[in-house]
Design brief:
It is a single chain. This protein has a six-stranded mixed sheet. It has twelve helices and six strands. Among the domains are: 46 residues, no CATH class; 72 residues, no CATH class. The radius of gyration is 21 Å and the shape is globular. The protein is of the alpha/beta class. The protein binds iron/sulfur cluster (SF4). Iron/sulfur cluster (SF4) binds next to α7. This is Phosphoadenosine phosphosulfate reductase family protein. GO terms for molecular function: catalytic activity. Pfam families: PAPS_reduct (PF01507).
Length: 332
């Protein structure tokens, strides 16, 4: 059997945990045996792009590859279906009889076709082709925007002849839900796993505490992502669908342009999705009256209230607000 050289592939998010993971990889295996890769969702803060793609390469003397999910094929399928409706075919002929019909008319389908083109912004394109935004219960963003492109990157390296260790900066104590999930008897508790073929997963900081993570930065002379000094408990999508009420209020106060961008995305996604049923970035949808979406602007207003917000139960529906469903540490 031919021995494959091992390549250590570190997924960088611009956050503290993946940076600490990169430091361990470099120390143990040297830059020449490591690759660093950043999955660009198109929904990151500019400080995160600067940190992951400029500061870290400079400070660590590394190159960072960028992967971006593409949904060009899905756009083509969705456009072909809408074109049939625009030409007069009934929706039931195009999609088959379903419990929920979206009530497309030829005029509405024509309007949607004008807007339904890939933008090259992975997050927005994903939502346009999926017909809505991800939610805590259907967190497809991590799968499509991070897990798949990063796995494809690793598989391409295996096809080049390497054995790949995929280094993931996940920590058990990052959140209560993750602690519970990772301390069970499932596979997630392992810091090292053989996934299959020549692909392995390594989680070197699984049992580190947050103090260890910042200490590793300090010892290496690295600055953490500056967003940590601006009220953000994690970095990643700006905003993340998992962000807390307080975090959202802080984002709106400091970075209103990102809220405006999400509001524009809501308008775009609504215009190519379910007719007469606007979609919202945060799946609150529980304002006491039906038929009105909880737009990001509504939710921001609620986030500024000091108490209650009985009309919204967003941040109570699933995991704690600091958690991400990914056990792979892809979203901080
Ligand atoms: S950071 Fe949040 S919004 Fe972005 S991909 Fe991860 S879970 Fe989804």
């Amino acid at each position: 059997m031919i021995e494959r050289p091992t390549l250590h592939v570190v997924s960088l998010s611009g956050g503290k945990d993946s940076t600490a993971t990169a430091l361990v990889a470099i120390e143990l295996h040297g830059r020449e045996n490591c690759r660093f890769v950043f999955a660009d969702t198109g929904n990151e803060h500019e400080a995160t792009y600067e940190y992951a793609l400029e500061y870290l390469p400079r400070a660590l003397k590394i190159t960072v590859d960028v992967v971006r999910a593409s949904f060009v094929d899905e756009f083509a399928t969705k456009r072909a279906n809408l074109a049939r409706i625009a030409a007069g075919e009934p929706e039931s002929e195009v999609y088959g009889r379903r419990k929920f019909m979206y009530r497309w008319t030829p005029a509405l389908a024509s309007q949607a076709l004008e807007i339904l083109h890939p933008t090259g912004i992975p997050y927005l394109d994903l939502c346009m082709v999926r017909g809505g935004f991800p939610s805590r219960k259907r967190q497809f963003c991590t799968e499509y925007l991070k897990t798949r492109p990063l796995t494809e990157f690793a598989i391409a390296r295996i096809d080049e002849g390497h054995a790949v260790w995929s280094w993931q900066g996940v920590r058990i104590d990052e959140s209560e839900s993750r602690r519970i999930r990772l301390q069970g008897t499932g596979t997630c508790v392992k810091s090292f796993e053989h996934i299959g073929d020549a692909l392995f997963v390594y989680r070197p900081i699984l049992r580190w505490h947050v103090e260890d993570v910042f200490a590793a930065h300090h010892l290496a002379g690295l600055k953490p992502n500056p967003l940590y000094l601006q009220g953000m408990s994690r970095v990643g999508c700006m905003p993340c669908i998992n962000c807390s009420k307080a975090e959202l209020a802080e984002i709106a106060r400091r970075f209103p342009e990102h809220i405006a961008r999400i509001a524009e995305w809501e308008r775009i996604v609504s215009s190519v999705c379910r007719q007469n049923s606007p979609v919202s970035f945060f799946h609150l949808g529980t304002q006491g009256h039906s038929g009105k979406a909880s737009t990001v602007s509504d939710v921001v207003e609620w986030s500024k209230t000091t108490r209650g917000g009985r009309q919204y139960d967003l941040l109570a529906d699933a995991t704690p607000a600091t958690a991400c469903a990914s056990a792979y540490g892809l979203c901080e």
